[in-house]
Amino acid sequence: MNKKLKVAIAFNEANPDLYIRPEIKDPKEMNFIPYFEVENLTPIEEYEILVKRINSLGFDAYSFNLKDNLSSLLLDIKKNKPDVIFNFIELYKENSRLEMNMVGVLELLGVPYTGASPISLANCQNKVLAKRILNTHGIKTPNFILVKENADPLIHKLKFPLIVKPAFEDASVGIENDSIVENEKQLLERINYVHKSFQQPSLVEEYIDGRELNVAIFGNDNPIALPISEIDFSQMPAHLFDIVSYQAKWDPNHEAYHKTIPSCPANLPIEVEMQAKRIAIESFKAMECRDYCRVDMRLTKNSELYVLEVNPNPDLTEGAGFMRSAEAAGYTFDQILEKIIFFALERKN
Fold this sequence. Notes:
Strand content: 15-25%
Number of domains: 3
Distance between the termini: 17 Å
Shape: globular
């Protein structure tokens, strides 16, 4: 190939100058034994590492920070004419619900981009709509109600314990240990908290006690399920519920972060493994995902599988999440990046 394909790694960090390296406590200052060693990188540094990796594959890659300025994105596309945009734009003007709009701009411009389409992002982020779509396809999800306004008493037929989530967030935003409620008083308090803190309805659903499985799906027309990863809760202390909270995902100083330990491939009976993969692929197709996706589900003691979330454009950090399953399947980090880029380029033709 004479001309290198140009790849723009697009993201939106409105105030990058305010980023400081996260302070990681000395293990001696923690009241628990940490499990993970944490890399002390800012998001900007992580994107620059990604640029270097993609350049090493023979592309002409560069990073572009939108900084909440749509005009700057349009100008960059006009100036640099990227062949493909590796899309990491997850919000606009601090509003995660505008993620789909940003992708819609790329659609209108006809620029190939990686990952989910606007409709897929919209449907997956709207948790209630996602449940209804999945249920229509015969895929089980926990029983739920949507609470738009505070109500005392709240009329429902759900069985405690329940989990209360913001209805339109992702990445476990708004999910904490206090999200699990065991009586009506706690339920009303948490609903009020979600409404006040996130300015959106509350999704209240039955808490499914069981094993948590993450099924990574890779591809488009013929997507495949990668080796299943399990979140091991066996080391979780009694005062924390067995959930992947926001703190468990993003706060390296929190005990939950070090007690939600991934295991891949998960040790599952073959029939359960095959069923989980089948359900994940069906979920991927039902939600019109593409390129790469992660389906989170719970496995009960009675071997029932419930889909909790369908996550388009999941985290691609090397050695974690989606990439952990990809590596277990024999893919290298670089191979996955390259394949995702070419998935997007194929849509141009």
